[in-house]
Sequence to fold (137 residues):
Amino acid sequence: MKSLIFACVSFAFLISVIFAGGTQNNVRCYECSGYYMQDCADPFDNRTMMLTAKCAQCSKGSVQVDGKMYIERRCLQLKSDDGCQRNATNWECLCSDVDGCNGRNTLVPGGTAFSMEASVSVVVLSAFLSIQQFVLQ
Fold:
């Protein structure tokens, strides 16, 4: 019985690792610059934009040119943690939870961008810890 539980726990942990990490380029992102295209600004109207395939992560950020702030949306080939960062003049938010996530008007510093992969990992890890505690009793 304990070996069956251990096998289930091991499988759950493996699934958690698969969902939590990696640099799989399977999300599609919008790519545009508000400096060149007025349609790129917020509120964003994606009806005129195409999604770029094979991105590891999407980016939405601000770029300052001649004292004016513009929105820029990009497809990134390397993945890092989802979330937002701000410096003195610019900000950038990274996301990879759904196709077109950098098209959200709410994806800005101070807002919340949840990753489905992170949520699944937390649930699986919680289940793993509960089963492990049950087995050790």
Summary: The chain has one domain: 22-120. The domain at 22-120 is CATH 2.10.60 (CD59). DSSP finds two helices and seven strands in the chain.
